[in-house]
Specification:
By secondary structure, the chain is mostly helical. It has 9 helices and 2 strands, in the order H-H-H-H-E-E-H-H-H-H-H. A two-stranded antiparallel ribbon has the order 1-2. Strand 1 and strand 2 form a beta hairpin. InterPro entries: Homeodomain-like_sf, HTH-type_TetR-like_transc_reg, HTH_TetR, KstR2_TetR_C, Tet_transcr_reg_TetR-rel_C_sf. This is Transcriptional regulator, TetR family protein. Pfam families: TetR_C_24, TetR_N. Keywords: DNA-binding.
């Protein structure tokens, strides 16, 4: 077998992966613009420059595309938040007290970067989460709860006088602000929005 023959499967796999990513990108734009129920499989194929039957080589349905988008971003947030917190976590006693505030600021940076770069996914999740199959919707909810819980533990560690319940409420409020502001402030520069959003989230979470 020649080297070129060995490379062919890899090249085909890479081309397939690229087409799959292209379909996800198209779906993200169209679902955000028109809503999940306003988009047909034909629309996804047309946006990616392929026929509707060709879409089935990558996804079994437009619901499967939605699953990959929403489960994928929930997993990304949960794992990213876990990585940040784990770096400052003492398995015996929880988060190191001196690391609570710096860790919380890193979490804010992480989420603001997400909100600034993925406003379409935020809109899709807000509007079309219920369109997911039951199992996938439960997976998203489970990942979201884990993400919120980690944040709340850090907030509580940063503010010993606060209860975990109070910390959780604050986290939800901060998420609402961080997730909605980039879309609402489209006329402002990204730099200004990022700076102000980080400051506002920090204030909501009791950081000076």
């Amino acid at each position: 077998m020649s080297i070129s023959d060995e490379a062919k499967p890899t090249a085909r796999a890479a081309a397939k992966a690229a087409r799959r990513e292209q379909l996800l990108k198209v779906a993200k734009t169209l679902y955000a613009r028109h809503g999940f129920h306003g988009v047909r499989l034909d629309d996804l194929g047309k946006g990616a420059g392929i026929s509707a039957p060709a879409v089935y080589r990558h996804f079994s349905s437009k619901e499967a595309v939605l699953e990959e988008l929403l489960v994928g971003i929930s997993a990304y947030l949960q794992s990213g938040g876990e990585e940040i917190v784990s770096a400052a976590w003492d398995t015996a006693s929880g988060i190191f007290p001196t690391e609570a505030v710096p860790t919380l600021r890193r979490l804010i940076d992480f989420h603001v970067d997400f909100a600034m770069s993925e406003p379409e996914l935020i809109r899709i999740q807000d509007r079309d989460l219920e369109a997911l199959p039951d199992e996938s919707r439960r997976t998203v909810r489970r990942l979201q709860r884990a993400y919120v819980s980690r944040w709340a533990e850090v907030v509580e560690a940063a503010h010993p006088a606060w209860t975990l319940e109070s910390a959780t409420v604050r986290v939800h409020a901060a998420f609402g602000m961080m997730n909605s502001t980039p879309h609402q402030a489209r006329r402002s520069s990204a730099e200004v929005v990022g700076v102000e959003l980080r400051a506002a989230a920090a204030a909501a979470l009791g950081l000076s």
